[in-house]
Amino acid sequence: MKKNHMRWRFFAEGIQNTLFYMLFPFIVLYLNDAWNPYLASFALAIISILGVISGIWGGIFADRIGRKPMMISSSIGFLVATILFIIGRIAGSNIMVFGSFGLMSIAYSSYIPAGRAYISDWLDEKEQKKAYVFTYQIFNVAVTLGPLIGSFIFDSMPIWFIGTSLVSVLTLVYISLWKTPEFQVNRKLGNEERMNANGKFTKAVVLIGKDKRLSIFVVASVFAAQAFMQLEILLPSTLLDRLSESTSIFGFTINASQNYASLLMTNGILVIILGSMAARLSSKYSTRFGFVGSSVLYAFSMVIFGFSQNYIGFFIGVLILTVAELLVVSTQDSYIAGIAPANQKAQYFAAANIRYSISRIFAPQLLAFVPLIRHEGAFLVAAFSSLISAFLFFMLFQKSILAYNSKVGQSISEKI
User: Fold this and answer.
1) Which residue in 4, 7, 62, 164 has the most C-beta neighbors within 10 A?
2) For residue range 195-204, what is the model confidence (pLDDT) as tens digits?
């Protein structure tokens, strides 16, 4: 990847991800303390719904008016949200803090389809895989680094954080305005097409829904997510329940919380280190093998988590889950880029991204069943969900689905 503007985009994405995950875990705790848990849950659910809507519209606008305008609007959204958050925390305004996080979530969701489509615009298929792996590595660094920074700044709001965050979001706006050239095809969009795009939005969403490949991919991914999201939902509570006493590892004594932190860090570090190698190896196996194999391994890791009674068992489970993650680290976004019509790439990425929003709603519900079916039962439910995902991914590559969509894809391209 020799294009300098892509390096700028990756840097900008790192800023966005870090800012978002610096606040996300602590906003939940903050609102639970500030309001009652039911009101906080309802408020966060509204943000999730708005995120889904903004992602879809962001994808449509990115296809209609270009990727760059969406990236500029997203970076400005981050700037305004960061300023609101700083003022809200200093003034002690819960509404402003909530509003700032809502705005940042909307800006973040609207950026993702434009950012993924931008990569597929500029890079060929081989380079795309490397780029998608790199964005995933950036994401993992942010998920690890963001909460760590947030734990130091959220309550005290030191002056260095205020200065650094403002410089970061201003850099984000600068990159979007002056370091993000529009792709040539998008640059040639005529005024008439831009003005008439409004009437085609609903038609575009409906036509995308007719693509069976995309629909099956989203549903299968939601079932798979019920498993891998338990790394951050069921696993910590299971560790606290089973490893309540301190554990000695290589001469170091660590408690249950530190056990969990070490497992999470192991997963993040392995994905960061091995992501590029996994992308190179992905050319050695089929996309179907990657999708199906990943779901089967997710199910296996859930079974291990469900019945492990010591740290070594949980560690093995995390290793298997990480392998499952690496199997699809580059292939999922590449698959979406491959099936999307040339004039609907951002919309397809927006639709595919819904899988995360839906999963964030359903995955936490397994915690509610723990008193009834225990942790073992909850993990087995997650494993069964992942096996359903494997079956759906297997069906995704059947000839009948592929033949049906070769006609639908042409129809979609002609009508939009």
Assistant:
1) 62
2) 344 445 555 5
